[in-house]
Amino acid sequence: MKAKYFLSGLFFAMGALMITSCDSDREDNPILDTSNMTSEFVLNTPAYAEQLTDLATSSNVNFTWSQPNYGMTLATVYAFQLSVDGTFTDAVFDEEGNEITPASYVDLSGSFQTVSGSLSASAINRAIIALENWEEESQVPASMLVYFRCKATLADNSIPAVYSNVVKINVVPSFKVTSSYEEFVYAIGDDSGWATVHPLRSAVEDDIFNGVYTGFAYLNAEFKFRSHEDSWDAPDWGAGSEDGKLEAQAGNLIVPAPGFYKMEMSLVDLTYSLTPINTIGVVGPAQEGGWNDDTDMTYNPETGAWEVEMDLAADELKFRANDDWAINWGGDINDLTQDGPNIAIDAAGKYKIQLYITYEGAHKVVFTKL
After folding, report:
1. pLDDT band at residue 12, thresholds of 50, 70 and 90?
2. Three-state DSSP string of 246-262
3. pLDDT tens-digit readout, 291-331
4. Burial 273-300 (b: 16+ CB within 10 A, else e)
5. Residue-wise DSSP of 216-243
6. What is the largest CA-CA distance in the chain?
7. Which of 174, 239, 241, 314 has the smallest number of CB atoms closer than 10 Å to its CB?
8. Predicted model pTM
């Protein structure tokens, strides 16, 4: 029996329609026949496949492929999966949702909307290490075969994904994984009509960006993370199958309540968390409460700053969130840092204080004497 799916809501090219239909099918509601989708979905074997690709020294691994035979031209998103034994078996779970047997493959990050693309050599190497579970460098072979297949999905989630043939290439794996993480990812949401991005900056470990990002912003109702500041070019990340989990090219993330948040996002394990910043206060002997009680500031959405007008003594102060020291800032007023040194106030007087909290390297405070 042929499986048929109504294509309402999908983008397709009318000039290329070749629709399987029957008397009951309406011209304005085309039907997709899935029985032959894989007949032309071919992942091409690269010319370099039998040569050794050194994953430690290569930047990218390039592939080309053809669109599945949908019987029409449809907007398709492609992604890749990698296996070290040529099998692509899904994970097995018990009735309580515990994983009994892990998947025999890894979903590689990134997606494409054309029939060619480049995969990060570092990402491939990390996927191999994850599947092989090597614990020491002596276990790493001089070379090995790895297997790839391409996955095609449509905008309509009710239509099953389609998989290409499997292609193998010969690689030189490395036990030392080099970072391919960028310095920033960006949060974007309906707090600004999906028009303003909020940068999250990666932490640095062993002089490289480690893929664990932190940023601060006012969030309203829904948002996503994306990899580019000025475009939606893949990858972007949305709601995964569990709370706190991310998935590439998935649905919007939901904010618990409108407010200012500390955002933490990891590309290492595709997780995220939101910490509400309910208050930010001025604390220290330069203000009346000393180090025990702080003077609360107010978030101004027009300026994007936490603001207060107050009297200050010629002494020291810092800023902290939620009346606690877990999140606090000090140091250079043009480059405030978490747990930074106390800030000296040279002259007593009344000040307008504007505190801009965004990401490490851009936090700053402006003191204006009134």
Report:
1. very low
2. EEECCCCEECCCCEEEE
3. 999 999 999 999 999 999 999 999 999 999 999 999 999 99
4. ebbebebbbbbbbbbeeeeeebbebebe
5. EEEE-SEEEEES-SS--PSPEEEE-SST
6. 86
7. 241
8. 0.56
